[in-house]
Specification:
This protein is mostly helical. The protein has two domains: 1-128, Orthogonal Bundle (Arc Repressor Mutant, subunit A); 129-168, no CATH class. The chain has helices at residues 4-18, 26-33, 37-49, 74-81, 103-120, 124-127, 159-168; strands at 53-56, 62-65.
C-alpha cells in the first residue's frame, strides 16, 4: 500500500519522535531503524526539506524533529515523501466514464480515501511505544522504541506467540 521510501521515512520519524529532542546522528538512526545507509541520507534530506526534521552540525549535532510529534500525522509524512495515489479519472477512458468514475474505480478510490483518513488520524506521538523492560532491566535494543522486538522470548512465554507478536508489530524475530 505504501512505498518502501515511505516505510523508511516513517521508521526514521518514529525513531526521532521517541528521542524527545535528543539529537541523533546518521549512524544511530541507521542502527535503530535498519534503513539502508545509502538510502538514509536521501530520506533525511527529504524530511529536512519538508520541514519535519531539523539538522544541526557539530559535535552535539544530529537530527531532531522540527515539530511536536503530536502535530505530525502519518499522512503528512507520506504526502511529503511519496503521496498515495488517488483515482481522479477512469483509466479505461470510456466516454460514459468522463463525468464520474466507473463503479470499480470509484470503489478503489473510496478505499484509498479511507486509508488516507486513517493515516491523517495517526500521529507520530501515537506511534511511539514505551520501551519494554526485560528481566535484565533494559529494553531489547534500539528497536524497542519503534515497536520492533529482538531477542529471545521472555521467560514463561511461548516462543511461537512471541514470534507472532513481533511479526504483527512489524518486527523481526532474531531468536
Amino acid at each position: 500500500m505504501i512505498s518502501r521510501t515511505n516505510e523508511y521515512a516513517l521508521r526514521v520519524m518514529v525513531h526521532l519522535a521517541a528521542q524527545e529532542k535528543k539529537p541523533r546522528g546518521t549512524r544511530q538512526i541507521f542502527e535503530a531503524t535498519q534503513v539502508p545507509a545509502s538510502y538514509l541520507s536521501k530520506i533525511l534530506l527529504a524530511l529536512v526539506k519538508a520541514g519535519f526534521v531539523h539538522s544541526q552540525r557539530g559535535p552535539n549535532g544530529g537530527f531532531t524533529l522540527a515539530r511536536d510529534p503530536g502535530e505530525i500525522s502519518v499522512f503528512d509524512v507520506i504526502s511529503a515523501i511519496d503521496p498515495l495515489p488517488r483515482i481522479r479519472t477512469c483509466p479505461l477512458n470510456l466516454p460514459e466514464h468522463k463525468k464520474q468514475l466507473c463503479p470499480l474505480h470509484k470503489e478503489l478510490d473510496d478505499a484509498f480515501e479511507r486509508v488516507e483518513k486513517a493515516f491523517r488520524n495517526a500521529s507520530l506521538a501515537a506511534l511511539v511505544e514505551v520501551p519494554a523492560v526485560s528481566e535484565h532491566g533494559g529494553g531489547h535494543g534500539p528497536f524497542t522504541q519503534v515497536g520492533i522486538r529482538r531477542g529471545k522470548a521472555p521467560r514463561g512465554s511461548k516462543g511461537v506467540e512471541w514470534d507472532r507478536r513481533a511479526r504483527v508489530m512489524g518486527g523481526q524475530w532474531a531468536g
